[in-house]
Structure formats: structure tokens, C-alpha cells
Amino acid sequence: MKKTMRTMLAAAAAGVLIAGVSGSLPAQAQGVPESDESIKLALNEWTGQHITTYVAGELLKQMGYNVEYVTAGYYPQMTALTDGTIDATLEIWSSNIGEHYQKSLDSGQVVEVGDLGLAPVEAWYYPDYVAEMCPGLPDWEALKNCSELFATADTYPSGRFVDYPPDWGTTNVDRMRSLGLDYVNIPAGSEGAMVAEIESSVANRKPLIMQFWAPHWIHAVHDMTIVTLPPHEAACYDDPSWGINPNDVYDCDWERGYIKKMVWLGMKDEWPAAFRFLHEYTLTNADQEPMMKAIDVDGRDIVEVVQEWIGNNADRWKPWVDKAMM
Amino acid sequence: MAVTDTADLLERVQPLKRLGAGWSVWIVTGGLAVLLFILSGQIDWMASAPKIPVLAVADWINLFMDWFVDNFRGLFKAISWALQGPMGWLRGLLLWLPWPATVAIVAIICHAVGGWRLALFATGATLYMVVVGYWTQSMNTLALVGVAVPLALILGLSLGILGHQSARARRVIEPLLDLMQTIPTFAYLIPILLLFGFGPVVGLIASAIYAAPPMVRNVMLGLSRVPTDIVESARMSGATERQMLWWVKVPSALPTIMIGVNQTIMAALAMVIIAAVIGSSGDIGWEVLSTMRKARFGESLLAGFVIVLMAMILDRASRRAAENQGMPKIVSGNFFQRHTHLWIALGVAVVMIVLAEFFSPLRDYPKSWVFQPAEPLNNAVKWLNVTLYTVTETIRNWSFYYFLLPIRLGLENSVRPFSWGFEMTLPVKIGYAALVAAISLAAYRFMSWRVAVAVVLVAGLLYFGVTKAPWPVIILVVTVLAWRVGDWKVALFALVGMLFMLLTGVWGFSMQSVYLCGAAVLICFVVGGLLGVWAASNDRVSTFMRPINDTLQTIPLFVFLIPIVMFFSIGDFTAMLAIIAYAIVPVIRYTEHGLRNVPPDIVEAARALGCTERQVLFQVKLPLALPEIMLGLNQTVLFGLAMLVIASLVGTKGLGFLIYVALSNADFGAGAVAGLSMAFIAMITDRIIQSWSHKKKIELGLA
């Protein structure tokens, strides 16, 4: 479908798209870019992902490509990848993928091009001062006796647990049930709501327990500790007999996963060098965290921050570009 | 005075006759309700609504959608590609023009349609966009609206004409318009996402589709109101059907059509912001949304204000243009004199473009000149959060204990020693029943039996809770209510709507929404009503409140979510406040409007009879304005439901949440079922209130 559309409209489209995307540098190597068609990179809902995407995107622009950043939901982007509506998404958390992920791989049109190199953590967090209020933390069993501490008017007498937004995919409702913890999962609607919740709780030293993740700039501003849950094992998610609750699944921690880059297979033919570049591309927590802080805490412009990183880290990205240009 | 007196008199003189009709129905209903309630304690399927759909409507819709997407996606992609061109050009043009040129052109256009004051306002507003550093984003948004509005107008005009000319088309179009206005905007986004893919064009298409209905309505209305003598004389002059339409009917319907144009522009602007959720980047909607995601209130407020200003300019300019349509134009002078504004605008643009070549800050407003007072705003919120902590915490807890939880779970489940100080023991229950009986009797004695029945219904609901009351009881009572207030058609509609929610497995979510929305609407009604009364009696208050109302209606509400979360934490209470902020406006407006439009001779007569101002208000003005106020309440219910989806960004569990999840999973079926359920709730409420208001108007001799 996409190919026929492309050949049909390519000639006319080129003009329009060039008009739409400005600022691309002249090609640095022979034959690159192989196509003037924009490479569409998916932007999801959190800042870290934006950084990952912009670093790759700005580097691709330097290589001479036209790049378009496309806002897309975490799950729908998988469908969009299968027909090249979106060409690549660069921060897929293995701990949180859902059925759309497998479906898109099964289509044969989507490939994984290696790990991003980021070490992600998804876990239950609490601000450090909460440890004094609920003795026994960070061990999860301490939470059994603290449910009233975390209770609020709307959840009393159960504790209040602030969970991920429903559309991010969370298994905490099962986890609570399986671990026998008396907490009500309150879905946060968005990253902003979660951050506001943390800010407000810390400012007033209010008890708070919630699902959160790292890398995130909030860790540069507030001290938060991870609750130690029974360690994750694959069996825990599908074998009820595994773990401390013999009759239920999810009686363990979140998976300490890794982060994958996913690419539409068609890229290989349309922009071979860009495809090789995305394969080489990596980014670490140490790269991301200062940039996150610059953007979200200091309120700086993302492109400016990313350009600065690119300017200071030529030794990091030169090899990727060189390999790609071969 | 005379009118109400007669009504009251009738009410008292003929109680027995009236009792005969309505009373017995409610006695029977009450008996049935008790029976159903007892049964639902015994029978499982009556106790809790099915969680798994009995009718897999969502799956059917998805199957159809899959087929549709597979077969027609190419077509829709081609449309989306075709629209990319004009949008890209407009965007390119707006970004290429130096900002002083654009500011000047906007001011000149505003002067042409609305005179000096509007021009001055427009200049200030556009300069604000430049100074706070959101110029590029503003121009991107303007480009989106600039393509979406003509599209919506063409779509609206053609559908409107079609509906005017063919009765069969009208029968399809009218219910479709009703549905489009009640289904929450977010639910539209899913099929558009599936058909058109991602990117800014999606937002464009969404807003064009969303903005078309007001145009359709006004075109149909305008054309149908063209005076017959004009049509007759045209026919006698031998006009063909085509000439009749374009040379006679459309020109004479123009004032009404222009009102449609105005509403379309406003709707398009509102939708452009919402569409940022699924795909756009670099426009104001995106800016508001992404600053909200970072919990940066200051920036999102400043960005949100751009939308308010843009809406105000577009609204006033297009409304003035509509008013000008009615006036005859005096055309004189040569070509240049007749188009002074055009030539001045062109001249200024050229001068600015040339100047910008030599003096670069005119081309790109320097970053160092940007004045963005976001940090003080952020700090103010933080400071207030800490300072007011005990206050906000108390408000939140009290609202939950004594207001939200009783509505949600019922007094039966929410009265606890730690909050109320006592347990719901048998004596307490008997006391409650006695109290309700006493109030109901008093209501019967001093007001009417209808009020007495209403007291019993509300008390019952409060005792059992909206989400806990067994579904057969709710369905029975609402159906009977719809029948008694309206007619059997309204009752049938209500029954079908509720069965839909029940059988598609979303009953629980629906009741969550009814509870949250109901609580918000209740507060809107009381607070908004008071504000409306105040504004009606005091011109200064009225002028003070108008811009606040305008702002609340146009500012993207994402802006307020963060501070409300800071103060009141994630959850129902925060969501309720967000809903109130948006939905309170119609009650204020309609109350004020209704009170101010009470026929002055009646008020005069009352004063002449020696009524005090208080009596005039409570016994003359309010009863006469009540039908109008109820229409405002009706709007509030619609707005509240629409806001539920946005409120789910701060964590709720009703239909809004379902739609939000469906949107992020691109699950059209689930979104459509939740959206239709919301539309049903809105339309059932709407019909009941409309019938009531209509009857009341006839009773008062106003209709």
C-alpha cells in the first residue's frame, strides 16, 4: 500500500515535503539521502523518549535526510510501524509492551534494531521521608501495616497507590491482589499529574507511594527510593504456582528490562544508510538525565539542548555516522 | 405576578384532580422499585450489571472498521496527502512573513470589519504572542485553523443545502448532528486516527469535521426562513432552481449563515487544541499539552492564553462581519478608494518585508527579548500549595465525606465513625427515613406533590448511592420519570439508551460518570445560579464576569489540571473541580439572561402591588426565568460530560477514562461504545429537561 502510494505521488510529494521541512544540510556522502521523502520518527508521551528521538532525528538531518517528528500513542505507533506510516520508534520499554508489540513483529514488516543502551527502571517509589513514617521500608512487607498511613478520604481504610495512566499499561492491580496488599490503585491521568502529585506531596511531607520510573528528571530534584519487591522472574507472570502466592500471578517486581529500537523494514530499501545509523545508535542514562533536567526543570528548548549534546559529543556519534555511510 | 398567581392557584385548587393522574403512577413505581430492590438482593444477575458485554457491539464496530480501513484507507490517505499541500503553503507563508507585517495585517483586517477598538485589541493580542515567545506556534495553529475552517464551511454549506432541498436527506442529517454534538470530541479522534494516520493533518481533519455541524444547522435554518414573498417574486421573474438558490435564497439567508460561520470558527479552534493529543507538533495545542505533561503551570497558562486571545479576535471579527452583512454598503470612489484597507495592508506588508531584510529582529523576534513570566506563576502555585495545605486538605476531605462519597456509594456505605462520628445503625436508618418522610410531607403541604415525589427520589438515591443502586431500580425510575415529564417517546428513548449501556457492559462506568458529572452539575447549578442572579442584578458584576466566562470557555482546560492536582491530589475531587470550571459558565449565562429577559411589565406590576425586591426576585423573576435557567442546566450537563474525557487526565474511572484508553489503544469499538453511552446520558437528560422546560413555559404562558 505504502509503496504504491509513494510511486504514484512521489514526484509531486517531494516538492511539498521539501517546502515543509527546512534546514536540512547538504548531503555529506555520495547517494545520501537516498530519498527526499521524510523519515517519520515517533514521539511518545514522555520527555526522555523525546530526547532519544530528537538526538537521532537531528543527526539524521545532519546526514542529509528530511526528518519529521510525529506524535503517536505508545500502542497505536506499533500498528503505524507495520505499514510505514511511522518509520521508527526508538524507545520501546521491554517491561511494558503489550499485545500490539508482538502483532507488529509478527507482521514481518517491523524489525528490532538492537538495544538503545538505556537502563530503565520501573518500580514502586516513595519519597525518602516516608521511610520514617512506615518503618520497615524499603521492604514491601512493611506496606502491609501501613495501608492506613497512605489512606485518603476517598480510599479509606485502604491505602492509596498512585498508578500509571491506564493507557501506559500497568500490572499493579494484579500485583496488589497477588501480594495481598490492601491498596486502591488510583490511575494518574498523565505524566504531568504524577509529577504534580510528587511535588505537592514532598512540599507538604505527605505520605505517598506510587508507580514511577527512571531515568526521569524528578530524581535530580527529589530523593525517592524504590520498594524492594520479590525479584522478577519470567515464570512469575504466567505461572500461578511461582512465588509467595501459590494461587496467583504477578507476585513479584516489575521486570528490569531493556529498551529496544523498532524500525519499519521498508527503511532498509528506502534509506539504507539511515537504517544502518539507527542500528548503531545508542544513548545512556548519563546522556539522557542532564538533558531531561535542562528541558523539564530549566525549561529550555529541546532542539537547542539536543544540538548542544551533539556539539559536545562528536566522539560518540561520529562512529555511528561513519558506519552508516559505508 | 398575575400569571404565577393563577398557576399557584390552580395548583392548590385542583390538587385532587392532579393527584389522580400522576400520584398513582408514582405509588405503583415506588412499589415496583422496592420489589426490584428486594429481588436484586436475591438474584445475582440483578444485583450487579454485566461486566462482560452481552451484545459485543464494540467487536462488531471493530470488525466493520477493519473492513472499512482495509478497503478505503488508500482513499483517505490520498485526502490527507492532498490537504498537506495547502496547509504547508499557508504555514510557510505565515512563518515567512515578518511578525510586524502579520501583526499589522491582522490589525488592518480588524479595523476594516470592526473599527478602531477591535484593531487596537487585535494589535495588543498579537503582540502578546510575539513577546511571550509563542509566535511560531501561534502561526502554526493559525495555519491549521486557516485550512480547517474553509473545509468545514464548504462541508457545512453543501450538507446544509442538501438538507434544505431534500426531506429525506434531512431525516438522516438531523439525528446525525444531534449525535455529533453529544459524542465527546475525543471519541471522534479514533476513527480519524485509523483512517488518516498520524501527523498534523489529522488534527486539521478532526477539527474540520467537528466544526461543520453548526454551519449545517445555520444554513438549514437560514434557508428555511427565507420569506416566501421573496421566493415567489423570484419565481415569477422566471428564476431557475439554481438561480433561486444562489442568487435569492443564500443571499437573503446570509445573516443566519454568518452566525454559523462564527460558531464554526470557534469550534475549529477548540478542536485544534484537543487534536494535539493525537498528532500535531509545534502548534499551541502541543505547547499547552507538553508543558502540562511536565507539570509546568506557568508556561501552559501563558500558552493557553494565546488561544483565548486568538479566539477572541476571530470571534469578534467574524461576528462583526456577520453584522455588517445586514447593512447596505455605500460604494463610491475609484478602485483604490473602495479598497483602502487592502492597499494599506499590502503596502505595510511590503514595507515590513523590506525592513526585515535590513533589521533582523523584525524578521525573527530575538529570543533574548522574550518576556515569559512563567517562573513567578510556577512559584506562586508552589507557595500557595504549601501555605494553604491544611485548608485544601480539609476542603478535600469534607467534600469526600459529606458530598462525593454519599453520592457515589450512598449514605449506607459512606457513613462511618471516622468521618461522620457514628455508624449507620438501625435507629439512624429509621431516623433518616422519618426525616425524609417529614420533608416530603412538608413539600406536599406547602409546594406540590411533584416536589414531594422528587424529595423521596433524591433521598433514595442518596441512601443507596449512584454506583451501588441496583440497575433494575435505576432503569425503572428513570424510565417512569421520562414518561411522566415527557411522553412515551422520551421514555422509550431513555429505556433503549439505558439498555444499551447495560448490555454493552459499560453500566458500571456509566454510573461512575453519572456520579461525577452529577456532583459537578449540582455544584454548578447552585454556585452558577447564585452568580447568575448576582450578575443579573448588578451591571458591574456582569461586565466583570463576562471576560472570565469567555476565558473559561476558550482556554484549553489542560492548563488548569496541574494546579488543581497540586492542591487536591489525583482523583475524583480534582476531576470534579476541572469539570465545574468548564461547565459552570452556561448556568451563569442562562440565569442572567433569563432574569434580565423577564417581561418588564410583569416586574413593574409586581412592584406596583407593593412587592419587596426580594419578593420580586423569588416569586416573580425566578419562577418566570426557570425554563431558561433549566436550558442552561441542560448545556451544563452536556459540557460536563464532554469535559469528563479531559478530566481523565487527572485520573477518573468513568466513561471518559474508557474513551481515553480506547484512544491510546486505537480501539474504535470500545471508544464508540463509551462515546455513544455518553451521548445517551446527555440526550436522555436533555430530553427530560427540555420537556419539563417546555411544559413549564406553556404553564407560565411564555411559549
Secondary structure blueprint with pairings:
The complex is a heterodimer of chains A (326) and B (703).
Chain A: H1 2-20, E1 39-43, H2 47-63, E2 67-71, H3 76-82, E3 88-93, H4 99-106, E4 110-115, E5 121-127, H5 130-133, E6 159-163, H6 172-179, E7 183-187, H7 191-204, E8 210-214, H8 218-221, E9 224-226, H9 234-238, E10 259-264, H10 267-270, H11 272-280, H12 285-297, H13 302-312, H14 314-325
Parallel strand pairs in A: 1-2, 6-7
Antiparallel strand pairs in A: 3-10, 4-10, 5-8, 5-9
Helix pairs in contact in A: 2-12, 2-13, 3-4, 11-14, 12-13
Chain B: H1 2-13, H2 15-42, H3 44-47, H4 57-96, H5 99-131, H6 135-165, H7 167-182, H8 185-196, H9 200-224, H10 228-236, H11 241-252, H12 254-275, H13 284-293, H14 297-326, H15 335-338, H16 340-358, H17 374-387, H18 389-409, H19 411-414, H20 417-420, H21 426-446, H22 449-464, H23 471-485, H24 488-503, H25 507-537, H26 539-554, H27 558-568, H28 572-596, H29 600-608, H30 613-647, H31 655-665, H32 668-700
Helix pairs in contact in B: 2-23, 4-6, 4-8, 4-32, 5-14, 5-16, 6-7, 6-9, 6-12, 7-9, 8-9, 8-31, 8-32, 9-12, 12-13, 12-14, 13-14, 14-17, 14-27, 18-22, 18-25, 21-22, 23-24, 24-32, 25-26, 25-28, 25-30, 26-28, 27-28, 28-30, 29-30, 30-31, 30-32, 31-32
